[in-house]
Amino acid sequence: MLNVIEVKNLTQIYSADTPFEQVAIFNVSFQISKGEFVGIMGHTGSGKSTLVQHLNGLIKPTSGSVLINGEDIWAEPKEIKKFRFKVGMVFQYPEHQLFEETVFADIAFGPKNMRLSDEEVEERVHEAIQFVGLSPDILDKSPFDLSGGQKRRVAIAGVIAMRPDILILDEPTAGLDPKGREEILSHISEYHKKQGATVLFVTHSMEDIARIVDRIIVIRRGEILLDGTPKEVFSEAYTLKKAGLTVPQITSVFIRLKEMGIPVDTSVYTVEQALDQLVSLKGRRSSY
Amino acid sequence: MIHKLDPRIKLIATFLYIVAIFMAKSDTITHGIVSYGLSLLWLFIITTISKIPIKLMLKGLKPLLFIIVFTAVLNVFYTPGRVLFEFYFLHVTYEGIVLAFFMVIRIILLITGTSLLTYTTSPIMLTDGIETLLNPLKKIKVPVHELSMMMTIALRFIPTLIEETEKIMNAQKARGADFESGNLIERAKSLVPILIPLFVSAFRRADELAIAMECRLYQGGEGRTRLKELRLYKIDYTALFLCLIFFFFIIASGKML
Ligand SMILES: Nc1ncnc2c1ncn2[C@@H]1O[C@H](COP(=O)(O)OP(=O)(O)OP(=O)(O)O)[C@@H](O)[C@H]1O
Ligand SMILES: [Mg+2]
């Protein structure tokens, strides 16, 4: 399968050669293939944001390279903008970047920078606002008059309107209530399915992503600690704890059960899976 | 050692130093050499005591290089006097060269001398020092405490704002904004997507800070005690005394020679 993202021996050192030198990313390599939905997890300060900002050329690697669709993005530094349109990036607290007078104009900022025709821009704005689950009435309002959750969605729509092949979201659910979180997750999931886009989702909450991603990459102190399917990753509960992360609640319940001597499989991470296991366990018990 | 001096003493010393440099005479070469030589020596001694690397001091001059060169050129060409050589309409005079030379030294002395103050004193100490020095002005209803509090807050938020600007710039770049190309008007326009969010966030922060301060019952300077009281020690008086001697020498050298 084609690797849309390929990162080779990436290292990023902030303030190199000064007393404040800080190795944020150290010798990281990985590949992501087209259409994958990947969760990137790690403790605060582990280097998640730094890592993903390399993928659309906002940060230049100290060493190593980043390939998008097989092309080295720094081969032609003047052409870096091309990759910014291919790789859409939603930042932590994206609502802080709103600036236009109307919601419409703000969402249109990206598409306009792509030099699309006015009709095309209009179509994309409408599509994007639907994707994030807001009503089109909102388009004429000032973005500063919206609620926090609405602002967040407008900001995400501003990136989705560019229809990036690769969508990166840096903790898009931080600071939202559970319902708002759930909604945003499902909209992103929908974008992933409908557009066949590759999605990278940065978070420190396991519960957020366990259900929707195909693969999880765990970062610890600038290096990859674990990389695999949610099932594989959550079965390493002990390693995760060392990285300062918690496993989903249901997983920790099962780990405790196993410690108590009950023969359960600890790689469950959803309530449904847990239920299945318990039912089958009960079946075995009663056949004694 | 310089780092630990009372900020008030350092402020007064810097003030004396600036006045001395402005009063230093360079009407004849001997005058100039004596007074500027003295100032240079003084600056060198203090720099050495405070253990600030000379390299760092010279680095501070870099952004002002243009002004220094500009002043020098103006002085060389526009001082009337004995013409050394002519170049179309430009005349280079002997007096011009001398004046330019001393002018450059004067600027360098001023910049490095004052930057020594900021290198050895934390911004908080500085504003504290300024506040206590200006305290008498309260009698004529100057809001000294409020002004110094504003200064402290402004200093505190400079790094935060820089960080914020960087974040917003990255976010807009990710949406294809371009700050580097285009003509002057286009570039100015491209700043709008940065400035508006920056202002919005600055106001938000100001609001939050005001609320946080009120929650801790801040109500201005009246009766407020300090974590660190400024107190003068023997070393502070010694330093002040040495400064006065330096000041006196500079003035005297101008009068006597
Ligand atoms: N611009 C910068 N200059 C210097 N150091 C930086 C810079 N940005 C990040 N760092 C450092 O690099 C390390 C990784 O930071 P990064 O922001 O990538 O972490 P993160 O995993 O995104 O954390 P969080 O979950 O808090 O967002 C941190 O130690 C941070 O202090
Ligand atoms: Mg981050």
List the helices and strands and how they pair.
The complex is a heterodimer of chains A (288) and B (257).
Chain A: E1 3-14, E2 22-33, E3 37-42, H1 48-54, E4 63-68, E5 71-72, H2 80-86, E6 87-90, H3 103-113, H4 118-131, H5 148-160, E7 166-170, H6 178-195, E8 198-203, H7 206-210, E9 215-220, E10 223-228, H8 230-234, H9 237-242, H10 249-259, H11 271-286
Chain B: H1 7-23, H2 29-50, H3 54-59, H4 65-78, E1 83-87, E2 90-93, H5 94-120, H6 123-134, H7 144-174, H8 184-190, H9 192-215, H10 234-256
Antiparallel strand pairs in B: 1-2
Bound molecules: adenosine-5'-triphosphate and magnesium ion (MG).
Indicate the radius of gyration of chain A in whole angstroms: 21 Å
Distance between the termini of chain B: 34 Å
Query: If strands are numbered along the chain, what order do they take across the biggest sheet of chain A?
Result: 6-7-8-3-9-10
CATH architecture of chain A: 3-Layer(aba) Sandwich
Structural class of chain B: mainly alpha
CATH topology category name of chain A: Rossmann fold
Question: Count of helical segments of chain A?
Answer: 11
In the CATH scheme, the class of chain A would be: Alpha Beta
| Number of DSSP-assigned strands of chain B | 2
Estimated helix fraction of chain B: over 70%
How would you write the strand order of the largest sheet of chain B?
1-2
The helix/strand order of chain B is HHHHEEHHHHHH
Report the largest inter-chain contact: A-B, 22 and 17 residues
How many alpha or pi helices of chain B? Answer: 10
Describe the structure.
- The complex is a heterodimer of chains A (288) and B (257).
- Chain A has 288 residues and is of the alpha/beta class.
- In chain A, 39% of the residues lie in helices and 23% in strands.
- The longest helix of chain A has 18 residues.
- The radius of gyration of chain A is 21 Å and the shape is globular.
- Chain B has two domains: 148 residues, no CATH class; 84 residues, no CATH class.
- Chain B is 71% helix and 4% strand.
- Chain B is built from ten helices and two strands, in the order ααααββαααααα.
- The mean pLDDT of chain B is 85.
- At the A-B interface, helix 2 and helix 3 of A face helix 7 and helix 9 of B.
